[in-house]
Every structure is written in structure tokens, then in C-alpha cells.
Amino acid sequence: MAEAIAQHEDEAHRPLTGMKLAIAATLLGLGNFLVILDTTIANVSIPNIAGGLGVSVSQATWVITSYAVAEAIMVPLTGWLARRFGGQRVFITSFLAFGVLSLLCGLSSTLGMLIASRVLLGLAGGTLIPLSLTLLLRVFPREKATVATIIWAMTTTIAPIAGPILGGLLSDNIGWEWIFYIKIPFAIAGGLGLLYIFRGRVEAVIKARIDIVGLGLLVVWVGALQIMLDEGRNHDWFAAAEIRLLAAVAAVGFVAFLIWELTEKHPIVNLRVFRHRGFVAASITYCVAFGTFFATVVIIPLWLQSNMGYTATWAGYATGIMGVLAIIASPIIGKAVETIDARLIVSIGVLGLGLVSVWRMGFTPDMAFIQMAGPMLLTGVFLMMFIIPVTGLCMASVDPDEQEDSAGISNFMRVLGGAFATSLVQTGWTNAARHNQAELTGAMTQGQATLDGMMASGAPPEAARTLLAGLLEGQSYMLATLNVFAAIAICFAFAATLIWFVPKPKGPINTSGGH
After folding, report:
1. Residues 6+ apart with CB under 8 A from 375
2. Nearest 10 degrees: CA dihedral of 347, 352, 353, 355?
3. How many CB atoms lie within 10 A of CB 414?
4. For 66-96, b where at least 16 C-beta lie within 10 A, e where not — what string?
5. What are the helix (H) ranges across 39-127?
6. Could you give the count of Cα atoms lying within 13 Å of 195 in the half-sphere of its Cβ?
7. Which of 218, 253, 246 is nearest to 231 (CA)?
8. Which of 334, 365, 372, 395 is nearest to 473 (CA)?
9. Which residues, at least 6 apart from 252, have a Cβ–Cβ distance to it below 8 Å?
10. pLDDT digit string (tens) for 57-113?
11. Element (DSSP H or E) covering residue 273
């Protein structure tokens, strides 16, 4: 029996070659791309969805929240699912289900139906993110493991940037339903293609019982936390009783979850990977640095659309340009990781992102699109310098049989980092703008003289007051944006120091434990 299991394990972990390897790598990367794309493609389409379904914009935002909650719950469960059913089987099933559920989302005629479909879509997509990484590392030969990491890092980085661009184009020109329809053929073809490629690669599975209590506690605390983060800024945070209740539920649920999972013989989430110091330091660096980067991705399009007159599509172009040099630099960085201390590359990449934020502190209200190109292009290079090696360090710091757990938990921390960053940056930006506007108003001693001058030039009194108020508001938000860039730079500087708590790798990063 032991020999049979070992033989199955060898078959499942046998690297691919030639055309099969190219197709498998493309389809695995596509699965990761589609799921992460779905986290942002709906953001710019909320007004269109609200209008199409006859609901308010605030009600329609649950289309985003429901998906985020379901995905956040599912990501850390990936390790258990892979052990119980096999990583290949779970990935292919989820990939095909993602296509079918995308169809249901597009066909939804009521908000309730759309939210239910989005919950199921998030559950299907949550496993694809970490499993795409572990399966990529499995199908590539050991000496080409870095290439697998590059493919995964590129799809992880480019997808959230492409989402707003694609969502804006489809919603404005065809209809909001097409932000879901467009993914269907790719998901179905991807699942069927992998089913063909992986035939004969039998995986060993463990018939472990389901940790019902652990699963329930995970759903409770993650769901409460994600809803609190998504809805807090709409309810003045802890001034609202429902936000305080959600925070309490999340805190108590989290503590109970930790106690249960650390004492359970067969936990639903293997928290024992945190015994590895390298994994702890690398995953925390991943969480903090990616969250800080995501704050940039959130604040720049928001500022461009709210105060610079950009459409959603052009705001997407302004951020999407960072993908140009990211694609070019990725192979070079991947090669460098094989010979240079990965911690140094991560630290330089994160510090570089911080310096780009310092550069952005020189932004002005009258700057042209081309003036944003410089920092945006460099962002892509530094981002790859961070994500490629830190992902490898997370995977290489654990035992070979814990790599699915490592991928699931580190990506869960990345998702939470992005959720915290989204809430904090939007709240901080708005509050800073209000504070700045109050200070500017108090310091404006020539306000009446300015109004008199406008009216003397022929402007009606109401129009003059509106114009002056608009100028004040624009300057207030401009200053708030610069304040946010300063805070982001400080956070990047802090994150750059965390990676040095990872033990020095002995030679090139070995992420091929699955072979």
C-alpha cells in the first residue's frame, strides 16, 4: 500500500516537458489571472449594475463584498482541500465551476440572485489562487521553478490592474453582464485543457474527517472581519453599533479559531506552518508590502476620477501602464533570484516602491497623463522585485508536504492586507481632505475679496461661490493625496526591514519541494 501511494505521488509530482508544459503553465496562470481579475473588474461597474437591477449604489456594493468574503474564507482552506481531494482535481473542478457561475452572475435579474452567484463564484475562485502556484511549481522541472514563480507573480500583479480597464470598457460600451460573460469561455477551456493535460497523473489523498468546528469558526471571524472592513467606511466606523458588533464577533471568533485549530488533531487550516520562522517573516512582509502597494492602486484611480476629471477607463490606463516594464523585468529578476540573496532583492524592491511614493509627493493638480508614466513604469519593476522572491521564500520555508498550506495561508494574508489597506486608505484620504479643507478655509483671509473679483468679472454670486468652493475642495484632496503618498512611503520603508527576519537562504531558493 505504501509503495502504491508513493508511486501515485511520484506520478502527480512528475514535471511536464515540451508543449504539455507550455499549455499547462498558460492555463494555470490563466486561472489565477481570472480570479484576481474578478476582484476588481466589478468595482467600476457598480453604478451600471445598480441601474440595471433597479437598486441603490450602496446596495449594489454587496456584489463586491459578497465575493470578497467568500474568497477570503476559501483561500486558507486550500491546503486541506488539496490533501482531501487532490490539488489537480480541486483546481480543475473550481476552474470549470468558475465559468458556470460567471454565467449565472451575468444572467442574474435581481440583486439577491447576483449576490448569491457572487458568493458561489468567490468560493470557487478562492482555491484557484494558491493552487495555481503550487501546481505551477509541480509541473515545472526543479531547475525552472523560478519561471513558475514569475508566471504566477505576473498574473497576480497584472490582473487587478487590468480589472478596472476591462470593467470600464465593457460596462460603458456593451453592458455590465459582460464583465462576467467574458470569462466563461476562458474558464471552461482552461478547465477542460487541464483535465486533458493532467490525465494519468494520480494524486494520493488523505481521507481525513472534516473539521466542522474549525470551518464554522473560520467562516464567522473572516466573514465578520471582511464585512466590517468593507462597510465600516460607509457607517462612520465604530460610531455605528453594527460595526462594533462585527469587530467583536471577528475578534472573539479569531481567538476561538486559533485555540481550536492549534489543538485539533486534523485542523481545517494547518496553522503549524507558523512554526517556521522564515515563513512567518516572509508572509508578514508579503502582507504588509502588498497591502501598502494595493493602497496605491486604490487611491490613485480614486483621486484621478474624483478630482482630476478622468473617466474610469482612463484611470485604469494610468495604473495599468505599470505592467509594461513588469513584464520585461520579470525574467531578469527571476534569473537574479537564482544567484543573489532573495532577501536583498525583496528589500530593494520594497524600498524602491517607497521611493516611487516619495516621487509622487510632487504631483500637482495640473499634471498631465504623461507625467504619471515615470513613477508608474518603475512601480512595475520594483513590484516584481518584491513579489517573485517573497513568494518563493514563503514556499521554501516550509516542509514539502506543507506547500499547499503555505500558499493558502500566505495568500490569505495578502488578501487581508489588501482589504485592510482599501479601508484604511479611503478613510484616511477622506478625513485628511476634510481636515485640509477646514485649515485652508481658516487661512484664506482674502476669500471675500476673491468673490468680489469674480463677481466684478461678470460671474453670478452663486457661481462665484461654487467655483471658489470647488477650488478649495480640489486643493484639499490634492494635499490629502500627497499625505497618503507620504504614509505609504513610510509603510514601505517598514516592510523593507521585515524581510531580514527570514533566515538567510542556503543557495538558490528551493520551491520545488513538490517534485
Report:
1. 356, 359, 360
2. 130
3. 26
4. bbbbbbbbbbbbbbbbbbbebbbbbbbbbbb
5. 46-53, 57-60, 62-74, 78-85, 87-107, 111-126
6. 11
7. 246
8. 365
9. 221
10. 667 777 877 887 788 888 888 888 888 888 889 999 999 999 999 999 999 888 889
11. none
Residue labelled with grid coordinates 476561538: 256
Assess contact for 287 and 412: CB atoms under 8 A.
no
Q: What's the angle, vertex CA 156, arms to CA 150 and CA 162, rounded to 5?
A: 120
Q: Report pLDDT for 256.
A: 93
Global pTM value? 0.80
Query: Mean of the per-residue pLDDT values for the chain?
Result: 81
CA-nearest of 266, 142, 152, 147 to 209 is 266
Alpha-carbon distance values, 399 to 88, 273, 512 (Å): 20, 8, 11
Higher per-residue confidence, 55 vs 491: 491
SS3 of the chain: helix, strand, coil, percent, to 5: 80, 0, 20
Residue 178: other Cβ atoms inside 10 A: 17
Contact 162, 320 (CB under 8 A): yes
| Helical segments of 338-460, H only | 342-360, 373-396, 403-443, 447-456
**For the CA atoms of the chain, what is the radius of gyration?**
24
Does the pLDDT at position 448 exceed 60?
no
Residue 190: CB partners within 8 Å, gap ≥ 6? 27, 30, 31, 34, 95
Instruction: Residue 231: name the closest of 58, 41, 15 by CA.
Output: 58
CB 127 within 8 A of CB 74: yes
Predicted confidence (pLDDT) per residue in 233-283, tens digit: 777 788 888 889 999 999 999 999 899 888 888 888 888 888 889 999 999
